[in-house]
Design brief:
The protein contains 26 helices and ten strands. With 665 residues, it is α+β, with helices and mostly antiparallel strands. Helix 4 packs across helix 5. The termini are far apart. The relative contact order is 0.05.
């Protein structure tokens, strides 16, 4: 361009130069001419007034304040009048808005209220929904009840602005997939993840602000924990708001699970419709469509795998299976033909990290009822005839080394029980040492409470998946055989070679007969008895062993149990009472043994530091009473300190067991 101008000596007329159309239009536009006419140069009164307004506006925006354009225009006109500008009343809000946009760019936001007659609001773009909710929560109306019109307008404007921002967040909610429905999607944890933080915070402040006492800590409200009842109510209200705002298009855990639960309990179409009209659950047709999709998923899994695997059970972690009877016992005229089914449950340790997506089949068009018919579990015949297998062939095949005290787990458990009994006793005299401090009351809890203090948290969380019911009584060999075959199929789909399945005592007996009858077919199956029934069997064995020893009379004469209850627990038919009775006897026999140990210790030449032992016991008792969080460390420490004492106690028991069969008993 400069080269061309130099060629004509700058004579644009001789070159017949023309303006660019867009540049010429901008040059002669009304906006440009008005700006020049108003004299908005750097040194003009308008520019000086605008810079003064910007200084005041900057301070307020940095503090998170909001301004309306009419107030800013009035202030700008006053500054123009002070600066000597001519005709300041001719300056409009549109002109001021353009200048503010040019100056602040993206640092400010203009918000137009729903009522177009009201002025626009100006605030910082860094203000988010939580800041607005916090400001609204700590907002206190004036003490005077005669609130002015401007204050009411300001409050309505703020409330409308908060509602608009929450609506924008609600539009981002996606809901849960319902074809098929995953059991993990209808939990409280899943509900919390779906609800926007701003909506959750607003309802939480409304529900829990008065319960805590004092002004609410809105800045840390999201991170503060709430009790289960309050959290359930907050999530319920929040899901109702989302359901109403989206006209039910977003499927939420509460509305889906409530409809299915009510239908399962009552089978009432009218009740579901009533709850749907009140906005508490999905429609009856939608609920039937979800149930149908679950049934189609089950049938599709049967076609693909030959069995049913719940959607929350995924390959990767070891699975165990349990089966038990499920007797409904309906009211019939003659008491016959009631439902006797069998249910299988799959247990799997929760894997580390986020859960992988469930494996599902592609769903067809939405249907309210099943189009195809079929069975999930076909009962297979099991020819169990003839003589039962000899049980004596399997006697001695179990390795008993694990049950000896040479095992680390067994040794640790025995030491913990010894320390518990010693802390409960809290001896004041040991050898020649005597402590003056006397415990007025028992502060060490019972055996179960003591172990709950030592192990307060569950080490692992399990996923539990429920399979469809097997239409067959669990007393039939064919039903048990079918359950074992499907357990093998489930383990195969999960990618594990062995199958572990748990039964109660009655089913376990027949399952072992089937396994003994078909050893090659079920060689990779481990049939277990449930822990509850194992404990009942041990209680029964203890009752038989001590049947004529006077233990039953001791429990009756001491007033611990009545005669009928004592007879039942000695037979292993009352779990809670039996466990309590044997724990009481354990502590009683330990105290008698301790008194005999003290007499034996005084006759021995080998001595241990006596007074430190008593002091450590008292210190551990105080730690368990006052500082339960560190009780486990204190017990482990005293276990190391009392190693010599426990060794002497073991020597005492060994000598007396060798000397007296009654002591061994």
């Amino acid at each position: 361009m400069l080269h061309i101008l130099n060629g004509v000596n700058g004579d644009l007329i001789a070159m017949e130069a023309k303006y660019h159309k867009n540049c010429f239009a901008t040059y002669v536009s009304k906006k440009s001419t008005l700006g020049l006419a108003k004299g908005e140069a750097v040194d003009s009164p308008h520019e000086r007034a605008f810079q003064e307004l910007v200084i005041d506006l900057n301070a307020g925006i940095e503090q998170g304040r909001a301004y309306d354009m009419m107030s800013l225009l009035a202030k700008y006109r006053d500054i123009l009048t002070q600066k000597g500008a001519t005709n300041p009343e001719s300056y409009t809000t549109q002109n001021l808005k353009i200048r503010l946009q040019k100056h602040f760019s993206n640092a400010i936001v203009f918000h137009q209220p729903a009522e177009r007659s009201k002025s626009e609001l100006v605030y910082s773009s860094s203000v988010n929904v939580q800041n607005v909710l916090n400001a609204w929560a700590v907002f206190k109306p004036p003490a005077n009840e005669n609130v002015s019109v401007n204050d009411e307008t300001l409050q309505s404007s703020e409330i409308h602005r908060v509602a608009s921002l929450i609506k924008q967040e609600i539009r981002k909610c996606t809901g849960i997939p319902t074809r098929p429905l995953n059991t993990q999607d209808v939990s409280m944890k899943a509900s919390r993840q779906l609800i926007p933080d701003c909506l959750y915070l607003l309802i939480k402040l409304l529900v829990t602000a008065d319960k805590r006492g004092g002004p609410p800590d809105v800045l840390n409200a999201l991170s503060q924990s709430t009790n289960m009842e309050d959290d359930r109510q907050i999530l319920s209200i929040a899901q109702d708001i989302i359901h109403c705002n989206t006209k039910g298009r977003v499927k939420l855990p509460k509305h889906m699970s409530l409809a299915m639960c009510v239908h399962h309990l009552t089978s009432s179409k009218r009740l579901i419709k009533l709850l749907n009209r009140m906005g508490h659950c999905v429609s009856y047709d939608e609920m039937r469509a979800v149930n149908t999709s679950i049934a189609e998923e089950v049938l599709a899994q049967v076609e693909a795998f030959g069995t049913v695997i719940p959607t929350n059970i995924k390959p990767g972690a070891f699975v165990q299976i349990a089966a038990d009877n499920n007797d409904l016992n309906e009211e019939t005229l003659d008491g016959k033909n009631t439902t006797h089914a069998t249910t299988m449950v799959i247990y799997q340790n929760k894997m580390f990290g986020p859960d992988p997506p469930p494996t599902t089949v592609q769903q067809r068009a939405k249907r309210h009822s099943l189009q195809a018919t079929g069975t999930v579990y076909d009962i297979e015949e099991c020819p169990v005839r003839g003589r039962r297998p000899a049980v004596t062939d399997h006697v001695g095949s179990v390795d008993m080394e694990w049950y000896k005290d040479t095992n680390d787990e067994m040794r640790t458990a025995c030491h913990t029980d010894f320390i518990w009994a010693l802390l409960r006793l809290c001896p004041k005299k040991f050898g020649e040492a005597v402590i003056a401090e006397v415990m007025d009351k028992q502060v060490i809890p019972s055996w179960a409470g003591f172990n709950a203090i030592l192990y307060p948290k569950m080490p692992k969380v399990s996923n539990i998946g429920y399979c469809p019911m097997v239409d067959g009584s669990s007393n039939e060999y064919s039903t048990i055989y079918t359950v074992l075959k499907h357990a093998q199929k489930i383990s195969t789909v999960m990618g594990q070679a062995d199958t572990v399945i748990t039964f109660d005592l009655a089913i376990y007996r027949k399952a072992k007969e089937i396994q003994w009858r078909f050893p090659n077919e079920f060689s990779n199956v481990v049939v277990r008895m449930g822990g509850f029934h194992i404990a009942l069997n041990f209680l029964s064995l203890l009752g038989k062993k001590y049947a004529d020893s006077g233990l039953e009379d001791l429990l009756i004469e001491s007033g611990v149990y009545a005669a009928g209850s004592t007879s039942a627990l000695m037979k292993g038919k009352s779990y809670n009472r039996g466990i309590r009775a044997h724990k009481l006897c354990l502590e009683v026999f330990f105290r008698l043994t301790w008194n005999a140990f003290i007499a034996w210790y005084e006759s021995q030449e080998k001595r241990i530091p006596e007074e430190p032992v008593l002091c450590r016991i008292v210190d551990c008792v105080r730690m368990v009473e006052n500082n339960k969080e560190n009780a486990r460390d204190s017990v482990r420490k005293i276990e190391a300190d009392l190693t010599e004492l426990m060794s002497l106690f073991g020597v005492f028991k060994s000598e007396n067991q060798a000397r007296s069969k009654l002591f061994t008993f």
